[in-house]
Specification:
By secondary structure, the protein is an alpha/beta fold. It is built from eleven helices and 13 strands. 41% of the residues lie in helices and 15% in strands. Helix 1 crosses helix 8, helix 7 packs parallel to helix 9 and helix 7 packs across helix 11. Bound molecules: NADP nicotinamide-adenine-dinucleotide phosphate and ligand G4F.
């Protein structure tokens, strides 16, 4: 193949995969992505790429595959011949991992191992990014968490991410892989899945504002998270693979806020009182919780020159604006609800 840089992204249809694909295409890469077969469309987040006037979609190649299926991973690696592989594919919902622990482990930890082995078998020099997670710190009360903080996983998802983290380090040590773990703290956007708490709140609040919904049911409002803006986190992933040496990096804003605070900000932004609309539902509680995440991204700041640019108020503005547009479209289609300028 020619001199064009080539990247492979698992989980390309997810929140982060779609932003990373856009970033890499804007840098001139040919981008290959792994998508799962689904009975409904699961590539909607890539739609913006197909509308790009620069026709960057001509350098985007999607392949059916699955992290539970090594033969598909091997086939895609042979076709794509990537110099960089970003492993973002995952059953990424913490609550769901308690209902499907075995499946979560298969995709998240064994899936990572399958991909690392498939790369090893190609015999090619490939730079590897692993989507590790702040969830691995679990209920360790030490804050802020950095690269030296001990993992204390509090969910099947977190335990599986720990295994994937260690596989990634192991392949660096044992086989000299250029392999990096990005320990990313929560990051959100209008492309966030609708069952994660921030998006669940912005989606419901905007629908409530337009009279399309009355109530929002939530679980634990006391948990605290370090929430950043997803496109900025995709940039950190790319930066990790451009360094001279592989390393692991915490990526975070350094600020933490409770779910209740996020809720208040969103409803206030829309001129609503959340207490009138929010109800508790114990189904959204988890058998074990992560009470507080707050990251120290000093290493990423120093070595990668990365820093967050969007604060929580900015994130709320971006998400509310996007979900308001969505709610307005829904309202127009149904011809119901409140008229709000
Ligand atoms: P996401 O929106 O849930 O995207 C996950 C992607 O993985 C989806 O495209 C999904 O495909 C795909 N996938 C699921 N199971 C798969 C399988 N068996 N084989 C191949 N692909 C599969 O997650 P995200 O927020 O973009 O996060 C990206 C990665 O970073 C994940 O690994 C997540 O665990 C990790 N992470 C996320 C955060 C965060 O705050 N967002 C923080 C730390 C780490 P479908 O669309 O078909 O379901
Ligand atoms: O939005 P969440 O589901 O995100 P969580 O569990 O922090 O996991 C996300 O971030 C991780 C990074 O730390 C990623 F690795 C992972 O893939 C995912 O992207 O929940 C945030 C908090 C939790 O404490 C939860 O108990 O919100 C609380 N919460 C309260 N009510 C709720 C709800 N969470 C959800 N999803 N739905 C609720 O109704």
């Amino acid at each position: 193949m020619g001199s064009q840089r080539r990247a492979l992204i698992t989980g390309i249809g997810g929140q982060d995969g779609s932003y990373l694909a856009e970033l890499l295409l804007s840098k001139g890469y040919a981008v290959h992505g792994v998508v799962r077969r689904s009975s409904t469309f699961n590539t909607e987040r890539l739609d913006a790429i197909y509308q790009d006037p620069h026709e960057t979609h001509r350098r985007l190649f999607l392949h059916y595959g699955d992290l539970t299926d090594s033969s598909s991973l091997r086939r895609i690696l042979t076709i794509a011949e990537p110099q960089e592989v970003y492993n973002l594919g995952a059953q990424s919902h913490v609550r769901v991992s308690f209902d499907q622990p075995e499946y979560t482990a298969d995709v998240v930890s064994v899936g990572t191992l399958r991909l690392l082995e498939a790369i090893r078998d190609t015999g090619r020099q490939v730079r590897f990014y692993q989507a590790s997670s702040s969830e691995m710190f679990g209920d360790n009360p030490e804050v802020p968490q950095n690269e030296d903080t001990r993992f204390q996983p509090s969910s099947p998802y977190a335990a599986a991410k720990c295994a994937a983290f260690w596989y990634t380090q192991l392949y660096r040590k044992a086989y000299g892989f250029f392999a990096c773990n990005g320990i990313l703290f929560n990051h959100e956007s209008p492309r966030r899945g609708e069952t994660f708490v921030t998006r669940k709140i912005t989606r419901a609040a905007t629908r409530i504002k337009l009279g399309l919904q009355e109530k929002l049911y939530l679980g634990n409002l006391d948990a605290s998270r370090d929430w950043g803006y997803a496109p900025e986190y995709a940039e950190a992933m790319w930066l990790m693979l451009q360094q001279e040496k592989p390393n692991d990096y915490v990526v975070a804003t350094g600020e933490t806020h409770t779910v209740r605070e996020f809720l208040e900000l969103v409803f206030q932004h829309l001129g609503l009182d959340w207490r009138k609309h929010v109800e508790f539902d114990k189904r959204y509680l988890r058998p074990a919780e992560v009470p507080m995440l707050k990251g120290d991204a000093s290493r990423a700041r120093k070595i990668l020159g990365w820093r967050p640019r969007t604060d929580l108020a900015g994130l709320v503005r971006i998400m509310v604006q996007a979900d308001m547009e969505l709610a307005r479209k829904e309202q127009a289609a149904k011809g119901v609800g409140n008229q709000v300028p």
